[in-house]
Write a structure and sequence with these properties.
Structural class: mainly beta
Low-confidence stretches: none
CATH class: Mainly Beta
Strand content: 35-45%
Mean pLDDT: 93
CATH architecture: Sandwich
Shape: globular
Distance between the termini: 34 Å
Largest sheet: 6 strands, antiparallel
CATH superfamily: Jelly Rolls
Order of helices and strands: EEEEHEEEEEEEEEH
Length: 184
């Protein structure tokens, strides 16, 4: 596996080694020891799986208490995956990074606790699998507005169309209004 730091130092792009032959391919989706060797000693407690159609935007989600670290990978299709730093004491507070994850490139994105996460579906359908480090806690679930101008996320929205949003995501708060992670 190759681990690469993104523009947000704590968010990592992970490229697994693929083994191809005439039957198809094989790769390790997760290898605890390899993650520990680079300092990711997270305990994953839940796997989540979503299927979304083209033009869907999910996020930007986070839990203000019981924050979740997420290891995100696309099984089928292609997404633009985004992490936003919500740790007020961080030098990259309010900054974002976006990467393409797909069933073709097999890349993963590690998003540590303290970040909001969202994605936009670029392909006809996308199936996203992600491991999390804390259980879902609906009472602490928060949504950051996907189109907050102060964030300036360059979503690759299809033909300038409005993305498909849940009611929860459409009602997200701007960074100025949102609860963020304070230094303890």
């Amino acid at each position: 596996m190759k681990f690469t730091t993104t523009a947000l130092h704590d968010v990592l792009l992970i490229k697994p080694q693929l083994y191809h032959d005439e039957r198809g391919f094989f790769f390790e989706l997760y290898h605890d020891q390899k993650y520990k060797e680079i300092g990711l000693e997270q305990r994953f407690v839940q796997d989540n799986y979503s299927r979304s159609r083209q033009g869907t935007l999910r996020g930007l989600h986070y839990q203000i208490r019981q924050p979740q670290g997420k290891l995100v990978q696309v099984i089928v299709g292609k997404i633009f995956d985004v992490a936003v730093d919500l740790r007020r004491s961080s030098p990259t507070f309010g900054k974002w990074v976006g990467v393409i994850l797909s069933g073709e490139n097999h890349h993963q994105l590690w998003i540590p606790p303290g970040f909001a996460h969202g994605f936009y579906v670029l392909s006809e359908w996308a199936e996203v699998l992600y491991k999390v480090t804390a259980y879902y806690a609906p009472e602490w679930d928060r949504t950051l507005r996907w189109d907050d101008p102060s964030l300036g996320i360059a979503w690759p929205i299809r033909n300038g169309e409005s993305p498909l949003l849940s009611a929860k995501d459409a009602a997200g708060k701007t960074l100025a209004e949102a609860e963020v992670y304070e230094e303890e």
